[in-house]
Write a structure and sequence with these properties.
single chain; mainly alpha; Arc Repressor Mutant, subunit A; 3 domains
Length: about 160
């Protein structure tokens, strides 16, 4: 268990992880899918299979020490991705892929209290300048860009209404 706990601590010391993410990473063999030399690949670094009981002990221990907290992870993730200019839809999708429940995601967004329309406008201004283009083809480029960033149609339309 100590080697598994060491791996968990190392992973959690680098950045926060969701519980599902940590389970997935701990369940894999060390080394992952990196490209290595033939000498390295020939060496036997195999580890015995990890039992589910051992994995549960490590996960429980990390939760007890508050090193693993899905609510905190979701809040930090929402805040960080929002500051990088991503919309709610994209962030929600990413959090669901990381194994978080919808309730935890909803709570993280409620706690963050982000004005998505203002954020969409700021992202559009940063990419396309001020004032935003009003010609049809250029406007479509702006809309497509904002959609790819995870903003909703209503949020995108609101930036053109406010012009």
């Amino acid at each position: 268990m100590t080697s598994l706990l060491d791996r968990a601590v190392r992973l959690l010391s680098q950045r926060d992880h969701s519980e599902a993410e940590l389970r997935r990473k701990l369940g894999k063999q060390p080394g992952g899918q990196r490209a290595f030399s033939q000498d390295f690949l020939a060496a036997d670094f195999s580890t015995p299979d990890i039992s589910s009981a051992e994995l549960e002990q490590v996960i429980d221990y990390c939760r007890q020490k508050d090193w693993l907290n899905d609510n905190r992870f979701a809040s930090v993730y929402v805040s960080g991705r929002s500051k990088k200019g991503y919309g709610e839809q994209k962030i929600r999708m990413e959090l669901m892929q990381k194994g978080l429940d919808r309730e935890i995601i909803d709570a993280a967004f409620a706690e963050a209290d982000i004005d998505q329309s203002a954020q969409a406008q700021a992202v559009a201004w940063k990419k396309f300048g001020q004032p935003l283009p009003t010609e049809r083809l250029e406007k479509i480029k702006v809309q497509r860009f904002l959609l790819s960033r995870g903003f909703s149609i209503a949020e995108i339309q609101s930036i053109y209404i406010n012009l």
